[in-house]
TrEMBL record, chains A, B:
Signal peptide: 1-21
GO cellular component, one term: periplasmic space
Requisite cofactors: heme
Higher taxonomy: Bacteria, Pseudomonadati, Pseudomonadota, Gammaproteobacteria, Chromatiales
Entry superkingdom: Bacteria
Residues binding heme c 1, per UniProt: 60, 63-64, 80
Pfam families in UniProt: CCP_MauG
Protein name: Cytochrome c551 peroxidase
Binding site for heme c 2: 204, 207-208, 279
């Protein structure tokens, strides 16, 4: 019934029903709903506030940089005291669509994720208690938390809730591929269409599907051929304790993949060409020709959507009571 | 003649002529003029682009953070490989009003300054040549440079020109003190007015004057009493080679000083209260009472102006040809 209504609606608009999103394994990104704007504005400040780190130098945005596809574009990230992170920073864009957070899925949702890096000694190297101490020393924050959450005392639960609510807004609709899904047959070139056909027919789409073109399952890295990793990361087994889950990682979203280089959980693939080649061989037992590879890459680049557009937040200043950051201790 | 016209205009608006800006040693921030908007938009991207650093992690905004008063709010900055910088990062806000750039004035203007940190081994640790290689590998940048500068080849001269042009827009008009200067007698409280009177009558204003409330001269740190510095920085003498210029530093702007903590070239003063106390004793031979100190601090907080408001820039992605950053080499 719904399908019929959509078909009729499409005909009214002059679109062919054959290219309706409903027939495709990838769906257009839906507008965000049920957003608490107060939490979003507060969470945006917190996302950009390096005072949630021990050094006063690292914020969420340091490694999930919203100017750069929600990543740091590094193989593995730089943490407190220039420590080298163990894994590639996944994009925060469209991360609300993930089945779970982190490569190994150890956080159920964005809120559970947000507290992790703050207290990770290799990342922001702070503690939740110290972070709350900092925020509580800043009257503008105290007032804004009170306004948004109605409580007198700032809690880490509120901090992560606000950051998660901001992150929920970081979806990237309106990519050329979504325009095509929504009925604009001219949105893709012949090569891009050929790439999408290859993407579907070769089996890429069996993992990279849905609204986020991934993010909704855990899969073994190295199905047909083993993946020779330099990284010690073992993926889902670190969470479940099951040997069968070794080297299973959350399938990354391919939305904005042109911006989220380098690729894989260890960041070892520098280019899309390389990533497509490795995925074809190791996951599908298929060696794409140069032309096929280029077509798939051309398709992948149509997944770049509208990037988050917002005013750079201005952070409330510290006060005489605010504990000073300790970058060199 | 002009003064008379202003007086008449003020009378028409119901303002008293006695508080006209023209009679004060501090002037309101003037609107920015003669701006090249193409350069500004390009410069904004470059200002936020960490690919101008060896690590791919440090941008201009890392240490001159526009969410935080144009500073990093650290005693001394964090550079490549977590090196500790030798000096406090001065604010980029209103820096176009400075007589010269850097604490020791070694750069004549913003353009001359902008190239410094990129190539400084302790800061962004890159070279101008490598930075140009990165930008040249990114077609969107090549096109934008061509559009803005009309040339096919990106040069470091254009890079620093664009960054400087963006920085020229980072003025902060409309502080409560400027509103007062412009005739709104209600803009300041009694304490703030008392603080301003003290600021003038005690002699603070002899160095902190003009549009930026500083930034227009070099003065010795420690006039009446010597300043016991832990920092080895010697200031202007490093530039002029003159012994008489030892410990002379550019007088910092006091615009937005509430946001630009900690204070002094070495960042040793954590609070405004401490900074006012030290300045009073060492520069003026005057010990402010607690009440006087608080009044001066109250006045200083009226110098916080409208912070730069702009959309977070989205950076063009690297390509297969872009040299990868080297954070851990």
């Amino acid at each position: 019934m719904i399908r019929k209504q959509i078909a009729m609606f499409s005909l009214m608009l002059g679109f062919s029903t054959s290219i309706l999103a409903i027939d495709e394994p990838i769906q257009p990104i839906k507008p965000v709903q049920n957003i608490n704007l107060g939490q979003v504005e507060l969470g945006k400040k917190l996302y950009f506030d390096p005072r949630l780190s021990k050094s006063g130098f690292i914020s969420c945005n340091s490694c999930h940089n919203l100017s750069m596809g929600g990543t740091d574009n590094l193989k593995t990230s730089i943490g407190h005291n220039w420590q080298q992170g163990p894994i590639n920073a996944p994009t925060v864009l469209n991360s609300s669509l993930n089945v779970a957070q982190f490569w190994d899925g150890r956080a159920a949702d964005l809120k559970a994720q947000a507290g992790g890096p703050i207290a990770n000694p290799g990342e922001m190297a702070f503690t939740h208690t110290l972070a709350i101490d900092v925020l509580t020393s800043i009257p503008e924050y105290v007032m804004e938390f009170k306004q948004v959450f109605g409580s007198d005392k700032i809690t880490i639960d509120e901090v992560t809730q606000a950051i998660a609510e901001f992150e929920k807004t970081l979806v990237t609709p309106n990519s050329r591929f979504d325009q095509w899904l929504l009925g604009d047959k001219q949105a893709l070139s012949q090569d891009e269409m050929a790439g999408y056909t290859l993407f579907k027919e070769s089996g890429c789409v069996s993992c990279h599907n849905g609204e986020a073109v991934g993010g909704n399952s855990f899969q073994k890295m190295g199905v047909v051929e083993p993946y020779k990793a330099k990284s010690p990361a073992e993926g889902l087994s670190a969470v479940t304790g099951k040997d069968a889950d070794r080297f299973k990682f959350k399938v990354p979203t391919l939305r904005n993949v042109e911006m989220t280089y380098p690729y894989f959980h260890d960041g070892e693939a520098e280019t899309l060409t390389e990533a497509v080649d490795v995925m074809g061989r190791l996951q599908l037992g298929k060696k794409f020709s140069d032309i096929e590879n280029a077509q798939i890459v051309a398709f992948l680049k149509t997944l770049t959507g509208d990037q988050p557009a917002f005013l750079m937040p201005i952070l409330p200043p510290s006060t005489d009571m605010t504990p000073a950051p300790k970058p060199f201790e």
